[in-house]
Write a structure and sequence with these properties.
The chain has 70 residues and is mainly alpha-helical. Helices cover 66% and strands 0% of the residues. The protein is elongated.
Length: 70
């Protein structure tokens, strides 16, 4: 443990507690997982709109303000 402390002081970088690092990494994993789920949901909704338009169930008018969406 002392070696790590000495390296941190010698490198002139901020030393972070291992528990804080673990908490931050856990949060990053959780946010990445959530982002993946939201992305998947958006793709499913885009596909549903495409299918609906093919079946003329909804308007064929382009969505205003949405890029790359037909």
């Amino acid at each position: 443990m002392e070696d790590g402390a000495l390296e941190g002081v010698g490198s002139e970088e901020r030393v972070v507690a291992e528990s804080e690092l673990k908490k931050a990494l856990d949060r990053i994993k959780r946010l990445e997982r959530q982002l993946g789920q939201e992305t998947e949901e958006v793709e499913c909704l885009k596909e549903a709109v495409r299918i609906g338009r093919e079946k003329k169930l909804i308007s064929r008018q382009p969505l205003l303000g949405v890029e790359d969406f037909e």
